[in-house]
Amino acid sequence: MKVSYQWLAEYVDVSGYSASEIAEKLTRSGVEVDVVEKLNKGITNVVVGYVKTCEKHPNADKLSLCTVDVGQEEDLQIICGAKNIAAGQKVPVAVPGAVLPGNFKIKKAKLRGVESYGMICSAKELGMNDRMLPKEIQEGILVLPAETNVGEDILEVLGLNDEVLELELTPNRSDCLSMVGTAYEIGAILGREIKLPETEVNSSDKIASTKISVKNVSPEHCHHYSARYIEEVSIEPSPLWMQNRLMAAGIRPINNIVDITNYVMLEYGQPLHAFDADQLNDGHIEVRLANKNEKMITLDNEERTLDELMLLITDGTKPVAIAGVMGGANSEVQVQTKNILLESAKFSGSSVRITSKKLGLRSESSLRFEKEVNPENVTVALNRAAALLSQYANGKVADGIVEELSTQNPATNIQISLQKINDYLGTDLTKQDALNVFDRLQFSYTEMDENTVIVHVPTRRGDITRDVDLIEEVARLHGYDHIPTSLMVGATTPGSLSKDQKIRRAIRRILTDEGLYETVNYSFTHPSQIKRFPGMYAQTKQISLAMPMSEDRSTLRTSLVPHLLDVASYNKNRNQSDVRIFEIGNVFLTEEQSLSSQPEEKELLSILLTGNRAAANWSVQENNVDFYDLKGHIETLFEAIGISNLQFVSASPEGFHPGRTASIQIKTDDKVIVLGSLGQLHPSIQQEKDLDEVYILEIMLEEVYQLANFDIQYTTLPKYPAIGRDIAVVVDRSLQIGEIVDSIKETAKELLESVQVFDIYTGEKVESNKKSVALSLVYRHLERTLTDEEVTELHGKVVEKIEKSFQAQLRK
């Protein structure tokens, strides 16, 4: 927001303070001023001149010899090379001795044998931003309005004796996106009164409701729509002072109608739009959402394709504006326009934001609507603009406002205590100190008792909704420099990591040591991602964001896997097919259909493997990762963090391959804890993502933190030899091998040192519904040497138990 110092002075008394001092006070109070720009780029002795005569130079076809009255005793003879110079014009004249931007000094000169006493200036030569002016003016000298006084200082005429403060506003301070809003802020800082613009309208005997009508069929997106009817307007340039202020704010002047709407927008922060009323169907306005693929041509002569989320202003038969963003070419104010429908409204900020982003259109109007305009200014700004149209466009304002109001916007009432203010700020302010701040802000209040007040916050300060917001206002206006400093007091303890933090760091270290890369993804996802892969929490309800950054980031995630798949796809599309990644992050769960409390958060670990196990070279062939690579990673991890009794049980969770997936379980003394799942991604999702075979794992970390044990346990090296035995049995193909291993451990008890599966065979030498499982068993006694007879007897019991329990056949 660019704020003219002289314009600001019309609303609040800034006498005694320079523009730089005002900027310093604004910045110290929390509204940062990025730069203070002087519009005078070094001009002296440039005045308004009247071109009495303009003739061709006797010795040059492209030069003109002019006689110019500059308000002095004698007229000046000036040679000018501009194409648009003509007699009867009033122009800026740099007289001899004048200085122009760049320290360019004007002296008497002789051009082609003829003397010239000064220089007739263009806007660019005066240091102005000539891009704000019409093209014909950019290319020639600056022609001033006919009513400009000859001899007047050009700095006063063009407003170049002004300074502009450029505010860097945070999103919560949209109240300062207007001159009046900034004046309120300066008034609060300096403790001075605010003088608001005149908004009284002199109405004609015509009744507005007989000329125009308004219908709002989308009240949830348009909270207030009001319109006035102004007839018999004259389209002409706006007053020079208004053009100067618009240009200082970075807005190009167009004509008096458009300039007045822009001027009031800058003044009140309330965007307005003027329609050619004669181009509307019976002067009717209807506010509605667009139809799918509906089209319209906007003021920039671009055809826009709309969708059902975009709010339109129509005349009941055709769209005439995109609400809050840009008007339509079919109702544009033109030279022949005579009657105007003037619009002022409060559109939903989220609706305007979505529309502006989708269309790639961002304007001063949409910027303000996106941040929610002050609802109290809708009617005030409308009346202010109508009064200016009456004054500077000779318009006749019809009596009355035609409007539809769907939402009331009362002041926010906040109860706050002096004790809380002082506790938060570490101050000893009195109650009157706090009330003085509220008075300066022009916040009314009701005193409840000696310690408590209820503050009535006006709608122009929509950023203040809680008592802590009021405390912030007290802090910044009392002055951060006046808040006493104090040392922190409290017991100090040596810092250390919690058990959860230690385990989390260990997981990251172990997995990265094994060649995996950690990813960090958004906690937000698209709703379809949740439906496609719900993960372990398929029964949870979706949690939608109130103000999502985009549709792809509109829902809180319930699984980490979808984003890992996106990372894998992203890498494959860039010829990186070998992906080994993991993520530790939170998912968000709720059983409520309509969320009324904070969702539950669960911390998960997810791993994804796809592509080759290792890069191919002369000694290693390409070999794709498989289920057992993933299983090996989790076994290595759990062994490192002290978790034993890990089991893998066949399972078919949603999103996984139904025949290549296992449930990860931990068997304790009294129960079995299910941690998650690992296996191959379901082929349909794999095909949709255009990926090779993908293996994924997802486990809950809460139980891992509880089960992990970093205590190191030492055991002596065995003194006595071990005896090994191998066994191969034929069992049903559906039998889980883990059941055989558990049976062996239960039978052999403490004499069994280890059992290892070293072969599984399902070929032609066994029946089609059978499989051969070969296991290697190691027996050892810790206190003596086992005899061959003891091992043979024990091994026989193991084989017998397997045969009886699983109808196994011993292979010879």
Strands of the widest sheet, in order across it, are 28-31-32-36-35-34-33
Number of domain modules: 6
Name of the CATH homologous superfamily of the largest domain: Phenylalanyl-trna Synthetase, Chain B, domain 3
Low-confidence runs of at least 5 consecutive residues:
none
Radius of gyration: 40 Å
Biggest pleated-sheet summary: 7 strands, mixed
E-strand count: 40
Terminal Cα span = 90 Å
Which word captures the global form?
A: elongated
User: Which structural class is indicated by helix and strand composition?
Assistant: alpha+beta
Strand content: 25-35%
> What is the CATH architecture assignment of the largest domain?
3-Layer(bba) Sandwich
Give the averaged pLDDT, no decimals: 91
Short description:
The protein is an alpha+beta fold. Helix content is 26%, strand content 29%.
Could you explain how this protein is built, in words?
- This protein is of the alpha+beta class.
- The protein has 6 domains: 2-39 and 162-190, Phenylalanyl-tRNA Synthetase, Chain B, domain 1 (2-Layer Sandwich), CATH 3.30.56.10; 44-157, OB fold (Dihydrolipoamide Acetyltransferase, E2P), CATH 2.40.50.140; 203-405, Phenylalanyl-tRNA Synthetase, Chain B, domain 3 (3-Layer(bba) Sandwich); 415-482, Phenylalanyl-tRNA Synthetase, Chain B, domain 1, CATH 3.30.56; 499-615 and 622-707, Bira Bifunctional Protein, Domain 2 (BirA Bifunctional Protein, domain 2, 2-Layer Sandwich); 723-810, Ferrodoxin-fold anticodon-binding domain (Alpha-Beta Plaits, 2-Layer Sandwich), CATH 3.30.70.
- The chain has 21 helices and 40 strands.
- The strands form 10 sheets. The protein has a 7-stranded mixed beta sheet. Strands 3, 4, 5, 6, 7 and 10 form a 6-stranded antiparallel beta sheet that branches. Strands 12, 14, 15, 22, 23 and 24 form a 6-stranded mixed beta sheet that branches.
- Strand 19 and strand 20 (319-322) form a beta hairpin.
- Helix 6 (240-248) crosses helix 7 (256-268).
- The longest helix is centred in the last third of the chain and has 19 residues, at 788-806.
- The protein starts with a strand and ends with a strand.
- The mean pLDDT is 91.
